[in-house]
Amino acid sequence: MKPKVTMIAWNQNDNYVVTAVNNHLLKVWNSSTGQLLHDLVGHADEVFVLETHPFDCRIMLSAGHDGNIFIWDITKGTKTKHYFNMIEGQGHGAVFDCKFSPDGQHFACTDSHGHLLIFGFGCSRPYEKIPDQMFFHTDYRPLIRDSNNYVLDEQTQQAPHLMPPPFLVDVDGNPHPTKYQRLVPGRENCADEHLIPQLGYVATSDGEVVEQVIGQQTVDQDDPGLEPSILDGMIRQLQLEQDQRTGADQESAPSGPQNGEGTPRRG
User: Fold this and answer.
1) Backbone phi and psi for residue 230, each to the nearest 5 degrees, phi listed first
2) What is the DSSP string of 147-206?
3) DSSP state, 127?
4) 8-26, pLDDT tens digit by residue?
5) Spatial CA neighbour of 63 closest among 10, 107, 106, 14
6) Other C-beta atoms within 10 Å of 65: how many?
7) Please, which residues bridge with residue 87 across strands?
8) Is 114 left (phi over 0), alpha (psi -120 to 50) or beta?
9) Domains along the chain?
10) What are the b/e assignments for 28-37, b being 16+ CB within 10 Å?
11) Cα separation of the two ends of the chain
12) Residue 195: which residues within 8 A CB-CB, separation 6 or more?
């Protein structure tokens, strides 16, 4: 097999260069002289993730398609910590990406099964409040392009970044309780009735019809027993304030002919 470099990274102070080779070895080089210093052995498949520690020049992280995550001391050429991403009943999960936190106390990885793995010191209590499966209901909705070649959501015909904040659902598209919906930016202060998504039946690519979240629950304005939506209330409030300002401006305007070029004054 012809050796090929799959990934390369400098350490924090640029004194060392680490290369990942397709024979599953990591090689540590002196960046000034080009001298090979260490061969790091441990991976059993190709490595596409090399991350240097944000301030400790000795530390380098590697992760690969074999499910292995290593923390190396590249100055000594030794293994400091090892984790194998074994998934019960499914074998191992290939690790696709890793990043250190700015303070160097944590790092997060994503794998081929859609999992987010968070490593660090201390307890995992802050993460226990979130469900195991978390997706946005818009994650796999089809997109189209308009006449200007702009991307639109196929169902709503809106640009994705202009759509309301999405709902959190599980892997089957079932919405999570309202306490989880408040974790979505933009929904923190919504009332419970505005955190209940509208469900509908959607045909999958296999022709199977499944119940999924299709959007924000809307309130029938003709039904006096239901409270209008927050957005509608805000629009009405803004319109009312504008009407009040306009009325005050007219009352405070001086009597007599106007030249038509003056600007309105507040009362």
Assistant:
1) -60, -40
2) TT--EEETTT-S-GGGSPPPPEE-TTSPBPPHHHHTTSTT-TT--GGGS-EEEEEEE-TT
3) G
4) 999 989 999 999 998 888 9
5) 107
6) 20
7) 91
8) left
9) 5-120 (2.130.10.10)
10) bbeeeeeeeb
11) 83
12) 178, 181, 182, 187
C-beta neighbour count of 73 within 10 angstroms? 16
Q: Residue 224's pLDDT band (boundaries 50, 70, 90)?
A: very low
Q: In the numeric block, which tokens belong to residue 216? A: 């924000």
CB 64 within 8 A of CB 50: no
Sheet containing 47-52, strands listed edge to edge, beginning at the edge strand earlier in sequence: 47-52, 59-64, 68-73, 78-84
| β pairing state of 59-64 and 68-73 | antiparallel
Q: Which residue has the tokens 């309202």?
A: 178
Strands of the chain, DSSP E: 5-10, 16-21, 26-30, 36-40, 47-52, 59-64, 68-73, 78-84, 86-87, 91-92, 95-100, 106-111, 116-120, 135-136, 143-145, 151-153, 168-169, 197-203, 209-216
Strand partners, 215: 198
Q: What is the pLDDT of residues 156-182, one digit of tens each?
A: 888 888 888 888 888 888 888 888 888
User: Would you state the structure tokens that stand for residue 114, as one six-digit string?
Assistant: 């859609």
Structure tokens at 205: 């690519």
User: Rounded to whole angstroms, how far apart are CA atoms 108 and 209?
Assistant: 36
Question: What is the rounded CA–CA span in Å between residue 167 and residue 150?
Answer: 24
Q: What are the tokens at 51? A: 């991350």
